[in-house]
Design brief:
Strand content of chain A: under 5%
Radius of gyration of chain A: 19 Å
Order of helices and strands of chain A: HHHHHHHHHHHH
Structural class of chain A: mainly alpha
Largest interface: A-B, 28 and 34 residues
Oligomer: heterodimer
Low-confidence stretches of chain B: none
Shape of chain B: elongated
Strand content of chain B: 25-35%
Number of helices of chain B: 12
Helix content of chain B: 25-40%
Strand order of the largest sheet of chain B: 7-8-9-4-10-11
Mean pLDDT of chain B: 88
Helix content of chain A: over 70%
Largest sheet of chain A: none
Low-confidence stretches of chain A: none
Number of strands of chain A: 0
């Protein structure tokens, strides 16, 4: 499979480019933030969530997952694209016997893998923090812990795919990164946004009964954005 | 006359690259205009032209990096649009400035490409050896000199054991010893590995020292395509004779088998050896002409090149 060959080549390229640092920084940052929150207001918060301590922690953590996904996705896409932009490697890469669709898909898969890794790291971090705060081990809601990052993941796909497309298209990363930052910050006000706006979907999957709707909506819209992205990438002139 | 002979020879040999009426327009301005390239198997084809003439645009089209506005490209007898990946599998390329991942070592740079090409790992030390980079393979490439980066680029181009090597300005920006190294490397490839090479340059001296066939491009148009030997012959110069009665003298010379022309009251002949000059002068004098002056006019290849790219008519 051409995609796997491209992916294994990309896997080698990301060494020493700060991507792994970012992948660890995101989830550990979120966990540290809640560590501070619960550490400073321990008595108040444990009283408030006394019925479900783990649930309280996860719900606090989940408030920041969507913005972290958007921000992380933006930066990961930009860093991946920049590896090729920086020393104008496109003309070498795209003159190799590999389809442009495979090149695009490999980069998307790499980005999704790295973000998924961050999500799992967040789950692990949440467990670690809960145990450190003295929450009972036997009460760990494993299903929710596992979903904390991944639940919003599909709903965030449209923005991640769009960011990858833009980052691959523009040699100068200022515009794609600025747009990604704007979207991330706007998403913080998701509660004021109408629910048909995709930017709010990662928030809506948490704590509403409609999470399947918003997740599948995200997946569908992600694929819809992917289509023109691939067509454009496959046809564009490489200068 | 010679051109058709060369063309027939090429048809008999294997044609590797053939473009037909190739155009590339950017916002109405033609970067490449009606280009008909013809490159045969096993030769080094020198693609010559001033900067901005359309060399790189042409090469990018040959590699499928940009789409022609119109016209067709056939490589190894196959249509590039239909069989792009199959064709690219047999091509190694180096386009303009070297492409490399600076944070990776030379070996890892080649490994990235090897994984896509899916060739044996043993090719990496082999190509490093061909470009004499053995011993430097573990260092990050960002610390390499331009010449080393360029050689790494050639190593990368050779990794898939290509049948056709396309090198765009491979000696640009190198110091004289670097140029010498790359040049001898390029000249070795067709002999040792049977590779066909397309090499572009804006320097005539470069092409003259490497190529078997030369194509000269100016303002997007191919204005000359022939063997380097014929180019040298065309540029070889002429004999000019001042005589008392040029028209009659030209007629006489014609009868004696000298094919000449009249220009500004002088007789013009293509270059000939001393014996033939002496015979012509003797013939003229014996028939009552006064020969005032016999001049040899030499034109360097450089002059010829400038005349071709400046004037348009070869």
């Amino acid at each position: 499979m051409m995609v796997w060959r491209a992916l294994s080549a990309d896997w080698l390229k990301i060494r020493g480019r700060g991507l792994w640092f970012l992948v660890f920084l995101g989830p550990l940052g979120l966990v540290a933030m809640q560590g501070l929150n619960f550490g400073l207001r321990y008595d108040y918060l444990t009283k408030q969530y006394s019925a479900d301590l783990w649930g309280g922690l996860l719900s606090n953590l989940s408030d920041f997952v969507p913005v972290a996904l958007y921000l992380g996705g933006t930066l990961v896409c930009s860093l991946i694209a920049n590896i090729e932009h920086q020393t104008s490697s496109w003309k070498q890469l795209l003159a190799l016997p590999i389809s442009r669709t495979s090149v695009f898909m490999a980069k998307l898969l790499l980005c999704l893998l790295l973000v998924a890794f961050s999500c799992l790291l967040l789950s692990a971090g949440a467990v670690g923090l809960g145990l450190a705060l003295g929450f009972k081990r036997e009460l760990i809601p494993y299903a929710d812990v596992f979903r904390i990052g991944l639940l919003s993941y599909l709903a965030a796909l449209p923005v991640i795919v769009l960011q990858l497309w833009l980052s691959l298209s523009f040699r100068n990363q200022t515009f794609p990164v600025a747009l990604g930052l704007t979207l991330s910050l706007t998403s913080l006000f998701a509660m004021f946004l109408a629910e048909w706006i995709p930017l709010s979907w990662p928030y809506l999957v948490w704590g509403t009964p409609h999470h399947v709707l918003y997740s599948s909506g995200g997946l569908l819209l992600g694929l819809l954005v992917l289509l023109p992205g691939i067509v454009h990438f496959a046809r564009k002139d490489v200068e | 006359m010679l051109n058709t002979e060369v063309k027939n020879m090429k048809d008999m040999k294997n044609t590797v690259i053939e473009t037909k009426d190739l155009w590339k327009k950017y916002r109405g301005r033609a970067a490449v205009e009606n280009l008909n390239l013809n490159i045969s198997k096993g030769e080094i084809y020198g693609f010559l032209g001033p900067n901005g003439a359309g060399k790189t645009t042409t090469i990018r089209m040959l590699l499928g990096l940009i789409t022609p506005t119109s016209g067709s490209i056939e490589i190894f007898g196959q249509d590039l649009r239909k069989n792009k990946l199959q064709i690219l599998r047999k091509i190694g390329s180096l386009v303009e400035s070297p492409s490399y991942y600076g944070h990776l070592s030379a070996v890892d740079n080649l490994e990235v490409i090897r994984r896509i090409l899916d060739v044996s790992k043993s090719r990496i030390p082999e190509v490093l050896d061909i470009v004499s980079l053995t011993g430097e393979e573990k260092r990050p490439v960002k610390g390499f000199s331009l010449g080393m980066k360029q050689r790494l680029g050639i190593a990368a181009a050779l990794l898939g054991s290509p049948e056709l090597l396309i090198l765009d300005e491979p000696t640009n920006g190198l110091d004289p010893s670097g140029i010498q190294e790359i040049r001898s490397l390029i000249k070795r490839l067709p002999l040792e590995q049977g590779i066909t090479v397309l090499v572009s340059s804006h320097l005539l001296s470069e092409i003259e020292q490497m190529a078997d066939t030369v194509g000269i491009i100016r303002q997007g148009q191919l204005i000359y395509q022939d063997t380097i030997t014929n180019l040298q012959q065309q540029a070889a110069g002429e004999m000019r004779l001042h005589v008392s009665d040029p028209i009659v003298a030209l007629n006489l010379a014609g009868h004696c088998g000298y094919d000449g022309a009249l220009r500004e009251d002088k007789l013009i002949f293509s270059r000939m050896n001393d014996a033939r000059v002496a015979l012509l002068v003797k013939e003229l004098v014996e028939n009552g002409h006064s020969v005032y002056r016999v001049e040899e006019h030499r034109q360097s290849l450089e002059d010829f090149f400038l005349q071709v790219i400046g004037g348009g008519e070869a």
